[in-house]
Fold this protein.
Amino acid sequence: MPHSSLRSLTAITAFGAYVPERVLTNHDLEQMVDTNDEWIFQRTGIKERRIAADDQFCSDMCFGAVRDLQLRYGVVLEDVDYIIVATTTPDTFFPSMSARVQAEFGIASCGAVDIQAACAGFVAALQMANGLLLSGVYHKILVIGAETLSKATDYTDRTTCILFGDGAGAALLERDDEGAFLASYSATNGEDGRHLYRSSLATTINGQPIQANGLIVQNGREVYKWAVTTVPKGIKMLLENSGYSVDEVDWFVPHSANMRIVESICERTGIPLERTLTSMAQYGNTSAASIPLALDLAIKDGRIANGDTVLLYGFGGGLTESALLLRWTL
């Protein structure tokens, strides 16, 4: 059942991000497939994306984001008691990326899990972290959304290779007496999951053959139809059930899938585009990393401020949605 009411003892107390150095522009892609800069930008809103080096992987994205968080906020991580990493592109299925982070930063007595909710992953991880903090058992949780999608992209497929990039964002969550997480929503349409997948061991989904090459496969038309009809309904349900209105949302941060989807969602919900934060122009579609990267851009240029009401909405592979309304506390 979708849900909107939310108890919270949680606040975000530090934030960080990382993207690799290599830039892949639309003009670079013109040399690789039959496409051009104007075509890509008009259909996606993407100008460039960051690509991990051959010897860089998801764990490196995580490490970079956490180091940035430490540098900018001067926080102590030794007492973190849980780590959650949202990713679809781990270096290894096990050890987990969260375990790699624990080892890299020498965090003792720490729980560590990876979750796989594709483009909804970062928000789903925030929701889970809030539940752990609310339990009273945990007090300080590190949440990371990280991807190296370039390593799972078919660069012969002009419809998907123009989309994806690499990067990571990290948030430190701590118990807070007032609670900054205001409302939550989740929903899944697993019946249509075949429209966006990355294969692993099986060669079928629900008995239907799939391309079992370990690369991202997307039916863009079907995913677009699902997103532009389902996400506006989810936003309406979350706001109505929580007692908030569109006018009370200072910033809307959807998954940066492509600009056409975001524009349609805004049009159908009445959320102004000028109050929408994305990361697609600079970084492309980075799945679980797209929402934290968009937040990071807005922190750095001063658009988002302490006390702002922010609506995060992740949606994608699954087909899964996770949304969170929160009061910004940085």
